UniProtKB/TrEMBL annotation, chain A:
It comes from Nonomuraea antimicrobica. SUPFAM superfamilies: Winged helix' DNA-binding domain. InterPro entries: Metal_resp_DNA-bind_regulator, Tscrpt_reg_PadR_N, WH-like_DNA-bd_sf, WH_DNA-bd_sf. This is Transcription regulator PadR N-terminal domain-containing protein. Residues 8-81 form the Transcription regulator PadR N-terminal domain. PANTHER family: PADR-FAMILY TRANSCRIPTIONAL REGULATOR (PTHR33169).
Automatic annotation (TrEMBL), chain B:
The keyword Transmembrane applies. It comes from Nonomuraea antimicrobica. Keywords: Membrane, Transmembrane, Transmembrane helix. The chain crosses the membrane at residues 71-93, 105-125, 132-155, 167-189, 201-219, 271-289. This is Integral membrane protein. It comes from the Bacteria.
Length: 112, 295
């Protein structure tokens, strides 16, 4: 799973959001590192809907324009959870191996 | 409507119609909310991103499960129509070049069409390996026959032999291209299924077309072209209205072009273009078909 996809699913894990809401949330989650553009976002939403990982939650009309809210499906939640586990395992392995090397222990800030 | 909004709307025409109907207003709201005040035209990166997103969605539509099944039907139809076209093209040329039409002159050329009649039959019976072997054997035979011709021979179709300077190196091998394409198509197609509903009609039309071509070649005066145009119209309209028909037509288009009008492809540029386009088309269709799930 690519990072923007992971971040979009993460944004929707907290509850239904509309397009611009997802963009601002992803920006925040990623620590201002990933700024999604509309083309990237809607291509990803189209693909995720096709894979039934997300679905339309509801529509509202704001300033005369339709605003559509998206939510995570059960499949989407399962995929996100599996991906989060995978990333956590990778991160844990990396940290454990770095700790094993005495030369790097200080730079990690560990007291041991 | 502001200038910026109009410009964004123009960029959104890169998206498929059904996507725009659902999401255009929503995307505009997002784009306008994300653009800084005072901006009157989309930034280059935003424009690029929108175009790329639109193309990605269009590409995914081509590879959607429903679309893959239609490609699968189209490949199944094309495997039958390709050898049939070659068979028909031989008969067609016979009728076209020989005037006045006499049976003993036509006979050897009709015999030339028999191998593809056999390939068509094998495909129809679903004998995949026999059809592939037969198609490659015919292609190999045509290639060796052409390669054995003296240097400077130009072959147009299977009828005209002109002595002169070759237009392109290896130009004498050009007429083997349809045969090679047919063999490649039969090899790449995962299975020979005539396909679901609708394809039977397309098949009937496609069989009728070479027959009409032969009859048109034999008719005197304007009656021939009129009959041919009427037959083309009768077949082309329903074929192009059906999604399987459009895909089949796309698959066979380079093939038919080379088989029917070989004199268009005597230059390096057009020959390279048709080869690359056909390779991309056959490769893409084979991939879509092989990854298609049954309905």
């Amino acid at each position: 799973m690519q990072e923007p996809t992971f971040l979009i699913l993460t944004a929707l894990a907290a509850g239904p959001q509309h397009g611009y809401g997802i963009i601002t949330d992803v920006l925040e989650i990623s620590g201002e590192r990933v700024r999604l553009r509309a083309g990237t976002l809607y291509a990803a939403l189209d693909r995720l809907q096709g894979e039934r990982l997300i679905e339309t939650d509801r529509e509202e009309v704001v300033d005369g324009r339709a605003r559509r809210y998206y939510r995570l499906t059960a499949d989407g939640a399962a995929r996100l959870s599996a991906e989060a586990d995978r990333l956590r395992r990778n991160a844990d392995t990396a940290a454990a191996r770095l700790r094993r090397d005495p030369a790097r222990r200080l730079s990690l800030g560990g007291a041991s | 409507m502001t200038t910026l909004e109009r410009r964004y709307r123009r960029l959104l025409t890169w998206y498929p119609k059904d996507h725009r109907a659902l999401h255009e207003e929503e995307m505009l709201a997002v784009l306008l909310a994300a653009s800084p005040p005072g901006r009157s035209r989309p930034s280059v990166r935003d424009a690029f991103d929108l175009v790329r997103g639109g193309l990605a969605i269009r590409l995914r539509r081509i590879a959607s499960p429903g679309s893959r099944r239609r490609w699968s039907s189209a490949v199944g139809l094309a495997t039958l129509l390709a050898p049939l076209t070659l068979c028909g093209a031989q008969v067609f040329r016979t009728a076209w070049y020989i005037e006045p039409f006499t049976f003993d002159q036509a006979l050897p050329l009709v015999v030339n069409a028999l191998p593809y009649a056999l390939v068509t039959l094998l495909v129809w019976l679903g004998r995949r390996w026999a059809a592939i072997a037969c198609a490659w054997a015919v292609a190999a035979y045509v290639v060796t026959k052409l390669a054995a011709l003296p240097a400077g021979t130009i072959v147009l179709g299977d009828v005209l032999l002109v002595y002169g300077t070759p237009w392109i190196p290896g130009g004498t091998l050009l007429p083997a291209l349809p045969e090679l394409l047919c063999a490649a198509l039969l090899t790449l197609a995962p299975s020979y299924r005539p396909g679901p509903a609708g394809s039977r009609r397309i098949l009937a039309g496609a069989v009728g077309l070479p027959v009409a071509g032969v009859v048109a070649g034999l008719l005197p005066g304007v009656a021939g072209p009129v009959l041919m145009a009427a037959a083309l119209g009768t077949v082309a309209v329903p074929v192009l209205r059906s999604s399987v028909g459009r895909r089949t037509a796309a698959l066979l288009s380079p093939f038919i072009a080379v088989a029917v009008t070989p004199f268009w492809f005597t230059e390096v540029v057009s020959l390279t273009a048709v080869t690359v386009a056909t390779a991309a088309l056959l490769g893409g269709a084979a991939w879509l078909t092989r990854t298609a799930k049954p309905a």
